[in-house]
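Notebook, p. 212. Picked up where the previous page left off. The plan for this session was modest: take the two constructs that came back from the sequencing core last week, fold each one, and keep the raw output in the notebook itself so nobody has to go hunting through shared drives later. Recording the first one now, exactly as returned: residue sequence, then the structure token string.
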Amino acid sequence: MAKDAHIHDSGEHNHFNGIKAIKEWRGKSIEFELKSKIIDVENKHGIIIVSSLTSGIFPGSPQLFYYFFTVANDLITNIEIVPGAENFKQ
């Protein structure tokens, strides 16, 4: 991961900039006992899209998430985390 990597968790409206902030954010998620099962991986125009079914101790578990990875020089520079529309009940 690039030192200045950025993560945007659009479902939680959070941004994390840099390795230190990302590690702190990930460390806080341990209480949710998250487990992810990768459903699909695609490469669309240089952006890697990972579809994942994530379960754990959180409302609505399990939920589908889409992760959009941007990579430069073999390092992750950006991750956009988007909850699947399938998670929202009409």
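Okay, moving on. Second construct, recorded in the same format:
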Amino acid sequence: MIISNSQIRSLIAMYANQDKKEAQSPGKGLKKFNEEAYQISVSSDAQAYMTAKEAISTLPEIREDRLANIRKLVQSGTYEVTDEEVAEKMIGRTLVDKLV
């Protein structure tokens, strides 16, 4: 998943606005929590999601093997990217930025 700078900025702004609203109305909407009145159950789909998320979090952020291969191609002058690949990435990134 690609996360663009504009997506990050919009999320930061959203959380900042939320924090401002909460700071302006302290105590509003707070109720006493009764632990005994609530039961939590996690579906098998949610459990599978959490397991997958944990497995993914252990993976390195950069795939060193792929990076080494690309680095070798660039250094040897044989790394090529087609015009279509560049255009596809540019359009995809623009669409993601506009949607968020």
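Notes on construct two before I forget. The chain has a mean pLDDT of 82.
Flagging for discussion at group meeting.
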